[in-house]
Amino acid sequence: MSAVQSLLSVAGQRISGQNVRTQNVMAASAIANVVKSSLGPIGLDKMLVDDIGDVTITNDGATILSLLEVEHPAAKVLVDLAQLQDKEVGDGTTSVVIIAAELLKNADELVQNKIHPTSIISGYRLACKEAVKYIQENLCLSVDDLGKDSIINAAKTSLSSKLIGS
C-alpha cells in the first residue's frame, strides 16, 4: 500500500447497494414513526425519560427528537432537518420529518423499479415547482380580500407561536 493510500484509508467497511438504501429508509421511517402520533391538534403527548431519570412530557416534535439518542447516520439527518426547521421557522418539525421519510420511502420504491436516483430527484424538484405554482394560483388571497378581522386573527396566531410567543 502506498503512503498516500495509507493516509487516506479509513478504518471500517464500506457497504453499498440496495441493502444500505433500505436500511436508511427504515431508519428514517422509524424516526418519523416516533413523532407521527404527536402530529396535529389532537396529537398524543410523549413521556421521555433520560439516563438520570428526568421526565419530559411533550408533543413537540423538535423536543422529542432532540431528546432521542440517534446513532444511525440517515436518522441523524432527519433529526438535524427537524432542528433546522425549528431554528428557521419555529414550527413544523414533525411535518417535515414525516414528509421527508415518506419521500425517501417512495424514492426507494422507485429505485427498486430501476429508476435512476437523478431522475427521481428531478421529479421531486418538478413536483415542488408545480406545488408552489398551484399554491400561488389557487390558494393565495390578496390582503384586501381578507378583511381586517381575518388579518388580525392571522397575526394573533403567528404571534402566539412558540418562536415569538415566549
Structural commentary:
The longest helix has 23 residues, at 117-139. This protein has nine helices and two strands. It has helices at residues 3-8, 18-36, 61-67, 73-88, 93-112, 117-139, 143-146, 148-159, 162-165; strands spanning 46-49, 55-58. It has a two-stranded antiparallel ribbon. The chain folds into two domains: 16-115, GROEL, domain 1, CATH 1.10.560; 117-156. Helix content is 67%, strand content 5%. The protein is mainly alpha-helical and 166 residues long.
Uncertain segments are: none
How many β-strand stretches? 2
**CATH superfamily of the largest domain, please?**
GroEL-like equatorial domain
Strand order of the largest sheet: 1-2
Per CATH, the architecture of the largest domain is Orthogonal Bundle
Structural class: mainly alpha
Subcellular location: Cytoplasm
Organism: Euroglyphus maynei (Mayne's house dust mite)
Subunit structure: Heterooligomeric complex of about 850 to 900 kDa that forms two stacked rings, 12 to 16 nm in diameter.
GO molecular function: ATP binding; ATP hydrolysis activity; ATP-dependent protein folding chaperone; unfolded protein binding
